[in-house]
């Protein structure tokens, strides 16, 4: 009989979205995937520690702003605008010239794994280090994955991989990004339906 945990896992697999991100990956060995911290392996990417600290500060500041806004709405609004300005500067800092010029990649994302087009064929069981940079926040997420399928046709390789050893913080961020993408898709669908009805 399926357990509550297995049902939740299946539900997470079901909710998949197509997402445009800055996306990189490389093959790593099994020892690295099983024992290492992804941030330690990705030596030429974003400053992951900085991004994590900024994300934590943002959550703490948002909670404080809510308390301030209840006591002084005008002050709360001013602080919120100031924080938004700082966010824009942070996004610019985190996005180096190379990464801002990098083309976006369309991936199919769920909390359990990812599907994408690769430049080379892979074996089932290969371990990967993935770097996903969500836009427009330029929030980087690093994690390991294991290839479960690779279908090649001509020069295209369609790869599916299941996430491996995902930390709770990364799992939470993936869920947040999927929910945001779903909400955006619904908003676009509603606008399109409204436009068609008007015509």
How do the helices and strands line up, and which of them pair or pack?
Blueprint: H1 4-14, E1 17-28, H2 30-35, H3 38-41, H4 48-71, H5 73-94, H6 97-101, E2 105-109, E3 113-118, E4 127-134, E5 139-153, E6 156-164, H7 168-198
Low-pLDDT stretches are: 1-14
Number of helices: 7
For the terminal residues, how far apart are their CA atoms?
A: 51 Å
Overall 3D form: globular
CATH-level-4 superfamily name of the domain at 4-45 and 103-198 = predicted glycosyltransferase like domains
Q: Could you describe the largest sheet, including whether it forms a barrel?
A: 6 strands, antiparallel, barrel
CATH class designation of the domain at 4-45 and 103-198: Mainly Beta
Proportion of residues in β-strands: 25-35%
| Percent helix | 40-55%
Keywords:
disordered N terminus, six-stranded antiparallel barrel, Thrombin, subunit H, alpha+beta, 52% helix, 6 strands, 28% strand, 199 residues
Provide structural commentary:
There is one protein chain. Helix 4 (48-71) packs antiparallel against helix 5. The protein has a domain at 4-45 and 103-198: predicted glycosyltransferase like domains (Thrombin, subunit H), CATH 2.40.10.220. Mean pLDDT is 78; it is low at 1-14. It is built from 7 helices and 6 strands. A 6-stranded antiparallel barrel has the order 1-2-3-6-5-4. The protein is globular, with a radius of gyration of 19 Å. It is an alpha+beta fold and 199 residues long.
């Amino acid at each position: 009989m399926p357990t509550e945990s297995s049902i939740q896992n299946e539900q997470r697999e079901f909710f998949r979205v197509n997402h445009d991100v800055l996306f990189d990956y490389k093959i790593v060995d099994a020892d690295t995937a099983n024992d290492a911290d992804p941030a330690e392996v990705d030596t030429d990417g974003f400053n992951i520690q900085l991004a994590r600290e900024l994300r934590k500060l943002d959550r703490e500041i948002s909670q404080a702003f809510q308390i301030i806004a209840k006591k002084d709405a005008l002050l709360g609004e001013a602080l919120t605008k100031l924080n938004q300005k700082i966010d824009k500067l942070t996004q610019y800092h985190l996005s180096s010239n190379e990464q801002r010029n990098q083309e976006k990649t369309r991936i199919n994302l769920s909390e359990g794994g990812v599907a994408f087009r690769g430049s080379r064929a892979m074996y089932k069981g290969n371990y990967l280090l993935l770097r996903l940079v969500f836009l427009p926040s330029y929030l980087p997420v690093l994690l390991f994955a294991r290839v479960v399928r690779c279908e090649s046709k001509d020069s295209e390789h369609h790869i599916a991989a299941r996430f491996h050893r995902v930390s709770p913080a990364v799992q939470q961020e993936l869920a947040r990004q999927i929910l945001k993408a779903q909400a955006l898709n619904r908003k676009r669908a509603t606008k399109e339906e409204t436009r068609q009805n008007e015509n």
